[in-house]
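Journal club side-thread
Mid-discussion, someone asked how the predicted structure for our own chain would compare to the paper's figures. Pasting it here so we can look after the session.
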Amino acid sequence: MNKTYQYILLILLMVAAIGCNPEAAWVDTYNVNVKMNIDLVSSGFAECSFTTDQEAYYLISIEETLDAVDPFTQPKQFMMLAIDSANLKYLAWRNELLKAGEFNIAPFASHALQYGPTKHFFTSLIPDTDYWVFAFAVNPVTLEPISKLNLVKIHTTKESVIDAHVEYRVKGYWDYIYPVDSTGAILSNFPYMATTRDSAELEGDPDMAPFDFFVYWTMEMIETPNIKPYYGVQAMVNDGVNTHLKFEEGHTYYTFISGFDGYFIQSAIFRFRWLGEDSDFYFTEEDDANIFNLSDIPE
């Protein structure tokens, strides 16, 4: 084969190999610097920003302070413990997918590690509690730390530091949630949960008033691992296809919305009777049903 053609073929093979490589570039040195900024700490969450000075995978996490392991005097042990914990969670997640017959499963690095600038909310935190927020670069092949440990100790507040309430709209099959501050401006960094239930479902248990049902629902959500709260404006179509619920004409519904910032706070329950596709309701915090029993509310 002509040397020129050999050279061109080699170049084409190299380009093809690079184009087909699904792995992001990363450096295998101990010189990576993972930068971290604590943007906001409230009673139930911490908003943090991360970035690296080189292309690298890195682990971010938050843990209650430990007595047995001191990250300041034993940083390597602490980092290996964090990697092991993340890997155990990943293996459990992958195991469930494999049992369900899934084959295209993300590798550990894509699932458990960060890459590039990241803004992250750590939620389900306990008010008035000490935590370590930390980050460090990880070799995605050997699962070993390849940077220094960047760790900051934070203390969650006793009460939420965000002045928030929610407004709610129902328009046809769609409903919309607006988390706002005292000026009416939309909040993008306030975590919250929401659910809508048919009153017929709640009336099935005479000992369970809607308020009690939603309290138990909230506690269940708080204890659910890896729960993902809402942020900013949410819009959902309740047609029974895109959501579990389908609005039925003449049915009465309760929509419960609660801040996911510490304990059971900044919550509201809105009650409405759906009148069909022409329904158009708008609720503010003054319209909170404040209900304890269905029989207490007139039709």
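Post-session note: The two ends are 89 Å apart (CA to CA).
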